[in-house]
């Protein structure tokens, strides 16, 4: 398979409470690290932890973002997550509607990018009047 440059990701993590899942979702989107966050659950997870087979009720958090924001989102999740070793898995979005993907890119602009882009319509409008 040829190397494919991935432009967009869906990142997932799990938490042991709905409240934490909602807070991670809200703050990631509010910080523009993800365009969208969805919380699903509860789900039942079975896993090994410290040589013991565990089963737990968890909440799944799905975050959509441009791939170039992944490192910042992963650092954010690692810092704010209550787990010692949180699940942080990124899956490529290989295709999607052009409008949705553009929306994802626009909604995750860094603040300095948003300021410079906000000035563009006024410049274009001023030029069209001349």
Would you write up a description of this structure?
The structure is a single chain. The chain has 130 residues and is an alpha+beta fold. The chain has one domain: Alpha-Beta Plaits, CATH 3.30.70.120. The chain is built from four helices and four strands. It has a four-stranded antiparallel β-sheet.
Sheet bearing the most strands, described? 4 strands, antiparallel
Proportion of beta-strand residues:
25-35%
- CATH top level class name: Alpha Beta
Distance between the termini: 52 Å
CATH topology: Alpha-Beta Plaits
Name the shape in a single word. elongated
As a percent range, the share of helical residues equals: 40-55%
N-to-C series of helices and strands:
EHEEHEHH
Question: Would you summarize the structure shown here?
Answer:
By secondary structure, this protein is α+β, with helices and mostly antiparallel strands.
């Amino acid at each position: 398979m040829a190397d494919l440059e991935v432009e967009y990701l869906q990142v997932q993590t799990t938490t042991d409470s709905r409240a934490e899942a909602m807070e991670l979702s809200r703050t990631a989107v509010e910080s523009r690290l993800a365009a969208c966050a969805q919380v699903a659950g509860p789900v039942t997870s079975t896993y090994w932890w410290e040589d013991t087979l565990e089963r737990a009720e968890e909440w799944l958090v799905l975050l959509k973002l441009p791939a170039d924001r992944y490192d910042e989102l992963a650092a954010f999740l690692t810092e704010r997550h209550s787990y010692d070793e949180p699940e942080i898995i990124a899956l490529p979005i290989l295709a999607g509607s052009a409008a949705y993907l553009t929306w994802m890119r626009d909604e995750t602009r860094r603040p300095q990018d948003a300021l410079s882009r906000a000035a563009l319509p006024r410049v274009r409008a001023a030029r069209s009047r001349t």
